[in-house]
């Protein structure tokens, strides 16, 4: 089993997540796509940890998970706040700075 | 590992089998996340991707991260997502029409370019040596190895991350705290506004749902004297969900009024 296959999978997952962030307009789905990108990065950290034979990559992936959890907590709170004032979770509707 | 090229078919280890079964499913679920319309379905597919990644972590000699992935992501984060979806409204499906003209082809082209670049880069990269594998690093136990690193080399980032967690929790509390700008109206004020409003049409309350003596469920709009359905008699969220029955079925004229076998 070639460990590089995990890297390919990680790259593809990251790409899919990036497309999702650009294309989807529901803020929650955009958020899930950001999570997907973070997870893809984690997968490559774990794979590189295996390729290099030390656990540093796994520790970094662990930190990424913590930061992702923080990001989800704050981001979802922002989404709820926006939804409360605008009655919509679409990222296109929150465009007050444009005008 | 000397050349990082895709080696399909020549691997037959259990891990390879796991990978070639689970990786396409993961990719399909991730793609489905993009394509499905409802946010809830996206969340379910996302949970599948998370669990699959946890399996990959465990297969790669990172059992601690695999368990943490399941506990934190599929447990806490996806729960939070579903909870917020419930608050914001399950029916908040995206309209998949594009608002910025030409965004979709540009995004897809850029993604194909980026993905192709990444894959071809990985395919051409060489390491000069094979993959070492974490068996040696995991010799004293994976959790023990990670703890060793976490509390020696990474102890400062670890402390900083704890500060980050506390800040995030505080931030979420501040953002979610809802301060009332006006005072809550009292019963008396509500009553006055009902009778001094523009019209007295709803002064006695909104019409009750149900067709008189035929069907009294809340999802059946009341019938007005002229036979039309009274829209105001149905809860707005039922209407938004589309869970409203057609009340004309229970109209008296269309009902069989022969009553002999009822007795």
Describe the structure.
The complex is a heterodimer of chains A (99) and B (263). Chain A is an all-alpha fold and 99 residues long. Chain A contains 3 helices and no strands. In chain A, α1 runs antiparallel to α2 and α2 packs antiparallel against α3 (56-86). By secondary structure, chain B is mainly α. Among the domains of chain B are: 11-88 and 141-160, Up-down Bundle (Four Helix Bundle (Hemerythrin (Met), subunit A)), CATH 1.20.120; 207-251, no CATH class. Chain B has helices at residues 14-35, 39-59, 63-88, 103-124, 142-150, 155-176, 187-195, 236-241; strands at 222-223, 229-230. In chain B, α1 (14-35) packs antiparallel against α2 and α2 packs antiparallel against α3 (63-88). The longest helix of chain B has 26 residues, at 63-88. The termini of chain B are far apart. The model of chain B is unreliable at 1-11 (pLDDT under 50). Chains A and B meet through α1, α2 and α3 of A and α1, α2, α3, α4 and α5 of B.
In short:
The complex is a heterodimer of chains A (99) and B (263). Chain A is mainly α and 99 residues long.
Question: What topology does this entry show?
Answer:
The complex is a heterodimer of chains A (99) and B (263).
Chain A: H1 4-23, H2 27-52, H3 56-86
Helix pairs in contact in A: 1-2, 2-3
Chain B: H1 14-35, H2 39-59, H3 63-88, H4 103-124, H5 142-150, H6 155-176, H7 187-195, E1 222-223, E2 229-230, H8 236-241
Antiparallel strand pairs in B: 1-2
Helix pairs in contact in B: 1-2, 2-3
Subcellular location (chain A): Membrane
InterPro entries (chain A): NADH_UbQ_OxRdtase_chain4L/K, NUOK/Mnh_C1-like
Family (chain A): Belongs to the complex I subunit 4L family.
């Amino acid at each position: 089993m070639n460990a590089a296959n995990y890297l390919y999978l990680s790259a593809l997952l990251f790409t899919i997540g990036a497309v999702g962030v650009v294309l989807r307009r529901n803020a929650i789905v955009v958020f899930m796509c950001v999570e997907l990108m973070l997870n893809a990065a984690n997968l490559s950290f774990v794979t590189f940890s295996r390729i290099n034979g030390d656990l540093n990559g796994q520790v970094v992936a662990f930190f990424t998970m913590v930061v992702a959890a923080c990001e989800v907590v704050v981001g979802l709170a922002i989404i709820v706040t926006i939804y409360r004032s605008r009655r919509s979770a679409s990222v296109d509707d929150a465009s007050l700075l444009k005008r | 590992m000397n050349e990082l090229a895709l080696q399909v078919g020549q691997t037959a280890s259990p891990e390879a089998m796991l990978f070639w079964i689970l990786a396409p499913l993961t990719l399909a679920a991730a793609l489905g996340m993009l394509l499905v319309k409802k946010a809830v379905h996206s969340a379910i597919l996302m949970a599948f991707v998370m669990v699959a990644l946890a399996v990959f972590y465990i297969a790669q000699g990172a059992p601690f991260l695999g368990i943490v992935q399941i506990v934190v992501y599929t447990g806490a984060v996806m729960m939070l997502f579903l909870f917020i979806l419930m608050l914001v409204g399950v029916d908040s499906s995206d309209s998949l029409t594009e608002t910025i003209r030409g965004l979709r082809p540009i995004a897809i082209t850029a993604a194909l370019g980026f993905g192709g670049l990444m894959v071809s880069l990985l395919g051409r990269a060489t390491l000069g040596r094979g993959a070492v594998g974490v068996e040696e690093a995991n010799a004293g136990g994976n959790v023990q190895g990670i703890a060793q690193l976490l509390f020696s080399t990474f102890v400062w980032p670890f402390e900083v991350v704890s500060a980050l967690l506390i800040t995030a929790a505080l931030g979420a509390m501040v953002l979610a705290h809802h301060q009332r700008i006006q005072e809550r109206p009292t019963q008396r004020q509500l009553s006055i506004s009902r009778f001094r409003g523009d019209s007295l049409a709803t002064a006695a309350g909104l019409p009750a749902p149900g067709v008189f003596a035929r069907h009294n469920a809340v999802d059946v709009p009341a019938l007005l004297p002229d036979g039309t359905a009274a829209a105001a008699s149905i809860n707005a969220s039922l209407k938004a969900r589309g869970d409203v029955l057609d009340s004309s079925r229970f109209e008296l004229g269309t009902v069989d009024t022969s009553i002999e076998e009822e007795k």
